[in-house]
Amino acid sequence: MNDKISVDFPATGERLAPHHASAETLALLTRRRSTTAVGLSAPGPDAHQVEHLLGIAARVPDHGKLAPWRFILFEGHARGSFGTIMGKVWAVKNPGATADQIAFEQQRLERAPLVIAVISTVIESHRIPVWEQELSAGAVCQNLLVAASAMGFGAQWLTEWYAYDPDIKDALGLRSGERIAGYIYIGSATEEVVERPRPRAHVGRWKA
Description:
This protein has 208 residues and is an alpha+beta fold. It is built from six helices and five strands. It is globular.
């Protein structure tokens, strides 16, 4: 990992180039591949890198300048403490679960040194459609994946059951209308990943 990779964010009102031609960026996007959460380990991003990651995450299309998303970070002991809550919720809803199964659910967030929950915080009855606000939250997740890769880390975007469970949402303090767009697991990759089959895009061209 290169902890020296850092670029200052522009100041409000600063004039920016309309494009940033970069073969390195194209190579990264061409070869970007998620690293499974179980294939991640310490070290994770340090405090400065985390701040930079979140700043990059927020640089997404955002119609209406609503910033319809927020973040919840799980680091250190917080992963295990919230994992205890996850295990209890799982046990109540799966009364036949074994001790090993419950322990597995408790340890989900400990698969990586950093987990970022991206929360979609749409504003309903706004001139910007809810769908567009939700798409902005999805773009935040993708920016995190790309930025983590550029910093030298592996990352995976997951949802799983605890992104949709109402009791987990309550435990996280989600307000009415808020949803979990995803949990972004970030850490050091323990091994190379293997390219998977990619679907062929369906492309159509409108002809006048």
